[in-house]
Amino acid sequence: MTMLDAAADRLGSVSSGNALELRGVTKMFGALAAISDITLSVRPGERRAVLGSNGAGKTTLFNCVTGDFLPTSGTIRLFGEDVTAFPAHERIRRGLRRTYQISLLFGGLTVADNVYLACRGVSRSRFSLVRPRRGDPLLIRAAELIEAVHMTASRHAMVSDLSYGQQRQLEIALALAGAPRFILFDEPAAGLSPTERQELVAILTGLPRHIGFIIIEHDMDVALRVAENVTMMHNGRIFKEGTPAEIEGDPEVQALYLGGGHD
Length: 263
Ligand SMILES: Nc1ncnc2c1ncn2[C@@H]1O[C@H](COP(=O)(O)OP(=O)(O)O)[C@@H](O)[C@H]1O
Ligand SMILES: [Mg+2]
Fold this sequence. Notes:
Layout: H1 3-16, E1 20-29, E2 32-42, E3 47-51, H2 58-66, E4 73-78, E5 81-82, H3 88-93, E6 96-98, H4 111-120, H5 137-148, H6 164-176, E7 182-186, H7 194-205, E8 212-217, H8 220-226, E9 229-234, E10 237-242, H9 244-248, H10 251-258
Parallel strand pairs: 3-8, 3-9, 6-7, 7-8
Antiparallel strand pairs: 1-2, 1-4, 4-5, 9-10
Adenosine-5'-diphosphate is lined by residues 29, 32, 34, 52, 54-60.
């Protein structure tokens, strides 16, 4: 590619205005293609669900977007910028956040301390050095985030005393710290009771509109209620894209879900 081509390419993707743009992304593990030739765009503020059975490649897709894995081929653009080779922290600096399928919370602190520290952007091990003072504006910010995930009543609880569902809610608050522009949620409804799922749907639909997100879900119900658009994956490839109504009414999707492709 010439310098001029590269500049034109960069301009082209800036003007396309997508929050996230994947082109031909493939990730191989040995001979296994965990994802193959994924091309996908998500607009700023858009709420997208990625559905698919176990092993479809959903988490691998997230790992490539966050920089936890380098893709084997293809390009990834974040707000117009080619971040394919960027380390994870450079993507975080540009407003990308994620939650994990398995909790990474630290149990020995309260809800409020966890969120305050995420707002400070410091590691938990240095907590004793950064005890908040009264009037610290980040305390107010932390309180707002705790409210956004419906946890004000539990703000002084130790994380280790929270229910599993509350821990998942707290993870969302941590992902909201530090002005994110785009969040990847990896199966936030996994292991939640029906009541907790309702709560989760309310939290996600109540997020600020400028924050786009992708939610990976196993549970079609949750995904179809929070997302404007749905991407269905199967065997590492995009199988179908559409609105929740289109996906729900699609005979091929139904066959895949009812025919044992989904567990
Ligand atoms: N780190 C890894 N090493 C080897 N194989 C992996 C790794 N991560 C995922 N895979 C494989 O890639 C495929 C897709 O996995 P994954 O992305 O976790 O799917 P999903 O999240 O949709 O359940 C699976 O066959 C899985 O075993
Ligand atoms: Mg997964």
